[in-house]
TrEMBL record:
Species per Swiss-Prot/TrEMBL record: Lentzea flava
NCBIfam families: exoDNase_III, xth
Transmembrane segments: none
Full protein name: Exodeoxyribonuclease III
Composition-biased stretches (Basic residues): 276-286
Similarity annotation: Belongs to the DNA repair enzymes AP/ExoA family.
Length: 286
């Protein structure tokens, strides 16, 4: 079973990329984030082409912002929309949808960004992550947590730790919240498989960050121990970030039980032009 997660940064804009990608990579389960469409609009846009490709769909969307989806061609049972116990900001946002697919409980998540440390949105992010941990703690043994987690697990998951000082995504409380989820028995399967490799999943659109490979790894697939033991390949599809009209995120793909493309490495294809030792400021800091 091939499981993928992708923050598409507007599914409407990404249709010309999404459908060919589904045909190329043939994932069995797809978790999408930042769909930015109400459920009715998503259905009108994509229900038929997804049905033609064999996918059932579970949605939790809202117009303009947020939005998550779960596509499956291996079953879509016991759908849960939203995250029990999660706070709103101020209303409940479309950030979580879960279902059982092929015997595995799959969570498609778009974790709040946090904006600035100590801001109200940052506190909301930590409370939201606490609610997620509570849900996962009582969930089934076979589970995967997929999505834009908006946390770089360690300094190795950003191009330059000094460039992120004072920014969200790398603070100790955020990382501690992620570690509390992993302590339930969830494994960061990409990093576990490639402990010493340069791997990113997000690159800012500005300042040539992608072509210089100056990114972050904030899109994760966390698998329970029973599922992690089935992993045969785990990789970032960097090719999907290239070309015309890409998302600023690349898909993350994990193959269970068999690897149709082989154990092909942490990033496909390799980075175009890895950044060197020169210090780089984040575009938003300029």
């Amino acid at each position: 079973m091939r499981v993928a997660t992708w923050n598409v940064n507007s599914v409407k804009q990404r249709v010309p990329r999404l459908l060919p990608w589904l045909d190329q990579r043939k994932p069995d389960v797809v978790c999408l984030q930042e769909t930015k469409l109400a459920d009715e609009a998503f259905t009108a846009l994509l229900a038929e082409p997804l049905r033609e490709r064999g996918y059932e769909v579970a949605l939790f969307g809202e117009s303009q912002w947020n939005g998550v989806a779960l596509l499956s061609r291996v079953g879509l049972d016991d759908v849960a929309v939203g995250l029990a116990g999660a706070p709103g900001f101020p209303h409940v946002e479309a950030r979580a949808v879960a279902a059982t697919c092929g015997g595995v409980r799959v969570h498609s998540l778009y974790v709040p960004n946090g904006r600035e440390p100590e801001s109200d949105h940052y506190k909301y992010k930590l409370e939201w992550l606490s609610a997620l941990r509570d849900v996962l703690e009582t969930g089934p043994e076979d589970a995967v947590v997929c999505g834009d987690i908006n946390i770089a697990p360690t300094d190795a998951d950003v191009f330059d730790p000094e460039a992120y000082i004072g920014q969200t995504h790398v603070t100790e409380p955020e990382r501690a919240a992620l570690q509390a989820i992993q302590a339930l028995g969830f494994h960061d399967v990409v990093r576990d498989r490639w402990p010493n490799e340069r791997i990113f999943s997000y690159w800012d659109y500005r300042a040539g960050m992608f072509h210089r490979d100056l990114g972050m790894r904030i899109d994760l697939i966390l698998a329970s121990t029973s599922v992690a033991s089935r992993v045969k390949a785990a990789w970032v599809d960097r090719h999907a970030r290239k070309g015309t009209g890409p998302s600023d995120h690349a898909p993350v793909i994990v193959d269970l039980d068999e690897a149709p493309d082989g154990d092909i490495g942490p990033v496909v294809p390799p980075p175009s032009s890895p950044g060197g030792k020169k210090k780089v400021k984040l575009p938003q800091a300029k």
